[in-house]
Amino acid sequence: MDLMTSDIMGQKSKLRNLDRLAGEGVKLENYYVQPICTPTRSQLLSGRYQIHTGLQHDIIWASQPNGLPLDSPTLADKLRESGYSTHAVGKWHLGFYKEDYLPTHRGFDTFYGYLTGSEDYYTHFRCDGEHDVLKNASSDLEFCGYDLRDNEVPVKDQTGNYSTHLLTNRAIQLIQNHDKSKPMFLYMAYQAVHSPLEVPDAYTGNTITYKIKIEKLMQNAGMWNNTVFIFSTDNGGQILEGGNNWPLRGWKASLWEGGMRGVGFVHSTLLKNAGNVSHELIHVSDWFPTLVTLAGGTLNGTKPLDGYNQWGTISDGQPSQRKELLHNIDILYPPKGASLYPDIFDTRVRAAIRVGEYKLITGDPGNSSWIPPPNLSLHFAPRKQKTPFSMHREWQPVQMIQTQQPDENVWLFHIPSDPYEEINLAQKYPDIVKNLLQRLSYYNSTAVPPYYPKSDPNCDPKLHNGFWSPWM
Questions:
Q1: What letter would DSSP give residue 281?
Q2: Where would I find the Sulfatase N-terminal domain in this sequence (predicted)?
Q3: Of 149, 309, 331, 391, which is the most buried if we count CB atoms within 10 A?
Q4: Which CATH class, in words, describes the domain spanning 27-322+454-463?
């Protein structure tokens, strides 16, 4: 059996091919990722919450000596252990300051793509400033270089070629050259639709075909009927860069649903429940035990996992094994307001957790707006209603949206009836608040210290032939 995962950052896709694949498979309508990309990718490949890997604050910047810890095997390690050939194509963003952190040292037989978090689609060039958590800002120091690699070798002859085409062509080569006597794991981390938003003129219409190419190729190779195809976002859409999460609240980097309620589906002829929608709670960390188990592997040798095997839920429609979900606890984020329950958990700390149907947020959740799509007014607020919430209820225009009080730092929502997080139930249900704070306190007791080092000037691509490269 072959496994293929694909991620695209941002808003729900309108592409016909993806809609068709989702409709033929199982749509995941209660699926969560992380608000930003490094934590999501780290949990996909490790099966562990970011509080357990030290990555709970921000992304890994290109200039930082940081990476997904080496103390536990990755998903690719475990699948290769089960006899799979393993390939990563596209965005890495899990650290590269030492060679040990490169994809080809983390379980992947091959890698073609870029190591940093974003870059120009045509020049494959990016700049990064100096980062220091104590300053909570970037300085004027800037490092710039190229970032495209074939395994561990810098690629110097593809300037002007669109990244989506390059990545798709490499996936095609991998499938065409694959030894069918062994299964394959292909991790396709497309750059689209990450900023900067750049697209060839031919793609300005409504049809983009690069994913269907891979599907048709696998069908022709006789591999599609034994493939599990997983599609996932890696965070909510960035409003400032063309993303939209309407009618959810918030956007990329926030703890609101708009920041981390993910678009995901699974397509496979192996699904017993194909053509359906799952409303069971699933998290990106669940892919690790799900795929390792599905591939006939074992979870021996890993540090304690935070993910659950969800194949029975996805394929058969069984209840999810996951009853709660820690979104994050970030003690480095600037505190907000006063600590309201100091004997349980410091509510000034930025954190969020889902337990059953309730979600609790503390500290500063990030931007709290509801942003309509461009075809609607730029300023909308919901009408107050006592009836159950509906995706199709009316909205009324206003001049400004008052989203929260300046020092407010505790929010409780009943997500099934209030998916847009409009009604804060914290004062109405203090016992539920306390119970969820106790769960945050428990998780906080298991956390490792966040690791967010200063930028290292030795990262400068000028010292490495103009390319972002390991420097230690």
A1: -
A2: 15-296
A3: 149
A4: alpha beta
